[in-house]
């Protein structure tokens, strides 16, 4: 049964990735996407920080009221995870939990990478991953969903809370018990 559940999670992540692929990406699109996420979070009073980066550096960053400097460190680790694995940090965390693995098994440090959600690859059709968008300040599933919701708004497609039913396996994630990423 657990294996079947894992397949459903993978299909959901694959479906999200396909649905949220961008037709193009540049600094102007990053700004618009960032502003959408800021507007969503501001209207809900969410204490988050968010960032959009390309492999060569940051394009957009905003820290809303109630967020902290610690959120910037979580964002950095989430982005590193996205670029290293080519998947959302939530998907990587689910994969590691399912396989009972730790970041150390890949020679990676928890100071630079994380298995918590909130980092999502930005994909462009026929170009692959061109950047990452990360949110920190809520629980990891909510961080992930805020990025997905912003992408859906930008693309003009319905937002589906597809991964919210996924059980969060924090005990398998490097023994970390943080609730705000």
TrEMBL record:
Pfam (any one): HbpS-like
InterPro entries on file: PduO/GlcC-like, PduO/GlcC-like_sf, YBR137W-like
Organism: Paraburkholderia silviterrae
Annotated protein name in UniProt: Heme-degrading domain-containing protein
UniProt xrefs under PANTHER family: PTHR28255, UPF0303 PROTEIN YBR137W
